[in-house]
Structures are given as C-alpha cells and as structure tokens.
Fold this protein.
Amino acid sequence: MEPILLIVCVLAGGVLASLGVHLLPVGGAPAAMGTATGVATGTVMLMLGAAMCGLFTAASVATFSGCILIVSLSGAVGSWLMMGVTMLMANLLYVFGTGIVPVSGRVDVDPITGESQKEYKTPQCDGHGVPNVSYISGMIGALLGGFGGAIMYFALLNYANFEPTMAGVAAMGIFVSNAIIAAYNIGGTIEGFQDPKFKRLPKALLTCGVISLLCGVLVWVVADLGGLGGVM
Amino acid sequence: MTVGGGPVEEEKKPEGEGFTFPPDVAQLGLISAVIAIVIVIFPGLPAIIKAVGVIFALLWGADSVRKTSKYGLGTGVPSIGVLAMGYGIVGALVGIAFGKYVSIGTGLLQVQPGVLVGVIAMAIVGLISGVLSNSEKVIGMKIPGLERGMMELGMAGTLAMLLQLSIVAGSLNFDVVIDKAISNGFIAVMFVLSMMAMFHPYNACLGPDERRPRTLMVSVEISGLLCVILGIALAATSTSAWGVANGVLLMIFGAFVWGYFFVKFVRTAMREAYSVVGTGLIKTIE
C-alpha cells in the first residue's frame, strides 16, 4: 500500500507544481521594465520561492501533525502568503514607483471583474503590473503549487521514512524539475489562466507526469534499498 | 557547432594531460565524466582529489548549460542549472542507496561502483525529459541537442552531488551520508553553490562577445569557492579517516583555485574588453 501511496503523492505533487506554474503571473525581463504583465522575475524563482515557503510551513506543521490534509494545506497557505505578498509589493512598485496602471495585455475585458483593459494599455506593450485577474490566478496557482510541494514532502517524510531535511531537499529537487519543465512549456512568461498559452497545459502535465512518476519510483527504490523500513 | 565567439583565439595555457584548455564540447564531456566517475567510486580518497572531481563535474555541467541555453530557453539560463541540480539530488540519493550493494573492499581501499546506478538513472530521466521537451508533439522547444544536454546535465549534477556528499561525509554509505551530510543541512549549501557553478558562468558571460574558455573559467572559480566552504565544513566536523588536515588542505586548495582563476578571468576580460570600440552618444539635431 505505502509504495503506491508514495508514488501517487509524488506524481500528484509534480503535476500540481506544473499546474501551479501555468497559473502564476510571470513577467520575466520585459516586466522588469514595466512592459509586460506579471511579476518581474522568472518562473523558476517565483515557484521556487513559493515552494520553499510552503515547505517551511509544511515542515513546521509536520512536526506535530500526522494528518496529510493539514500538512498539505499548511504548505499551500505558506506559498499562498508568499505569492500574495510578492504580487502586492510588485504592484505597489509598479503603480507608485513606475507610475503605470496594472492592466492585462492578453484580454480586452477582465474575465472576473469585467473591467475594461484595452484603453489603459500603452501601445506596443504587453500590459503592465499584476491586474485583478492575474492576481487571482496567481493566488490559485500558489495554492495548488504549495499543496503539491507539501504533499510530496509529507509522502517522503511518512511513507518513505526520510529524515526531515532529506525529505525537504528531495521534495524541492523533484518540485523544481517539474516547475522548470512547465516553465519551458509556457516559454518563460504567462499572465494566468486568461492567457492563450494556458491552453498548452496538457502537454506540460503529460511531461511532468512522466518525470514525476519516474522520480517517485526512484524515491521508492531509495527508501527500499536504503533500509529505511516501513516500505518493504 | 562553433567553439568560441570570434576570430580572436588568445593563446591558452595547456592544463595538464597535453590538452589545450579547454577541449571541445564532446572531449570535455568525456574527459570530465571519466575523471569524475573514477574518483567517485573510491570514497576513501582524500578530499582534495575528490575536489578535482567536483571541479570537472561542474565544468562539464557548465559546458552543457552553455551548449543548451545558447539557443534561448525562454526562461533564462538559470532554469536549466537548477534543473540539473534537482535531478542531481534525486540521483545522488539513488546512488548512495545502491552503493552498499555493489561494494568491494573496506576502509580506504573501498570501491563502490554501485553509486553509478544513480548516474545512469538520472541519465535515463534526463534523456526522457529532453525527448519530451524537444518533441514537436509535446512541448516542442526545438533546441538542437537538448536531449543530450539534459542527459549530460542529469549525469553531471549527480556526479557533482555524489562527490560533494562523499567529501563531507568521508564515505558513501547510506546511513553515514544521511547522518553527516544531509540531516545537518549541508546538502542545501551544496545544492545552491553547485547550481551557481553550473548556470552562473554562462548567465554572467553571455552576449555577442562570449568566448567559451573565458566562460568556463568562471565555473572553475565558483567551484574553488565551493571547495573552500566544503573545506570549512569538513574541518569543523572532521569526519573522514584523514583528520582535520583533510579539511584544511581542501580549504587551501579551494582558495588557490579560486584566486588563480579569478585573477585569470579578470585579466582575460580586461584584455578582451580593450578591443570594444565606444561609439559615443547618438548625435542630436542642432
């Protein structure tokens, strides 16, 4: 039972990481100049930061709780907070520092609030800042990504009987590999679920599924051969 | 594939073994892989020799990063270095788990070819991820040689990680490594610094005037810094059979490598920057 649970949890973590990356508003280098929507950094840095925060909270909660749902949700909340603060601070800098309006470059009307976007977009630009729809999308992405990282951590800690540090580092290693493959799929920048690039999602899910399945099997082999017990 | 960015081929000091520094991409990969593999299966060697293996493994990784990200990944150069070390961690865990099953001899003369299972496993995972990323039907990155690049990165990351774990723990036995190198958090330092040694050279040097020998110098320089930090860790914990001298020697070696290649890099950069011509500001209309 437990090897299967372990592999399923690692698979779920990898797929959720990939899904989370597709929902984040990542602007990359153009966003650093305020000429594209999103936070001005790469996917890897955003998702790694979010996952690390999630792993910290999940690891703290895992010291006194053995419930998979509580640990995973605490990881989700950790990365949620990190992404929320990051996007808020980025928006403050964009609005009050650069003097631009947060506006989406991909859609004419915000699909959630119904606000018009097109008039506020500077010509020749891909949008600016983090508009409402991207903010909400980013929060959902961080929630899913953090949940994925934490569920992986929990599985490595309890089903594979890894040491806490080893479980954290191994979860981070598998998580970033999947996040990077997902980042290659979106080609570096994405606005959120309203972006046309979001339709490429199934391809990344397939690749990340294969990679995390292999990683899950390898982790099970480590736990089995390393004599960590409980998995035999 | 072009080696070096321009017609300016400065004379380079040959670095041992009769090879001019550096050999081309395939040669460097082969030489580094063989050296790192030979060093990693002898966990009883002194740390300073393992450090040479780490330098070669990271050099190989940096060269693969350069080769792959030359075509533009879309997410920046660092992503592929982080990917390599992500695979490296999983591969190193697989390696140490297999280590005790294929092991000959004991003590300083122990040979553990079993750890290479981790390297092979990550070569397979890297190859599969490369094929899926490059395939037109799946992600479709359309980067020539991405399959080979990702495979090499997985292998280089695993070898670098295994060698560093072996330096700090003084052994490649599963329980010893977990006790002395992983559960106390050293693995996080290794993770960050080895990915720096892989992605930072090309990330910092890329541009129209990028030249391969100059880029690779940065990788060796960061590996030197990594050796200093591992040396401090080793001297403080003093786990291996060689005592504190092991750590101190590693620190001195790392400081020497770092200093030598830092000076060399700055000198090369200064000399080559001399030929850049300033065009002045754009003229305004009177």
Observations:
- Chain A touches chain B at residues 28-29, 42-45, 48, 163-166, 169-170, 172-177, 180-181, 183-185, 187-188, 203-204, 206-207, 210-211, 214-215, 218-219, 221-227 (CB under 8 Å).
- Chain A has a mean pLDDT of 88.
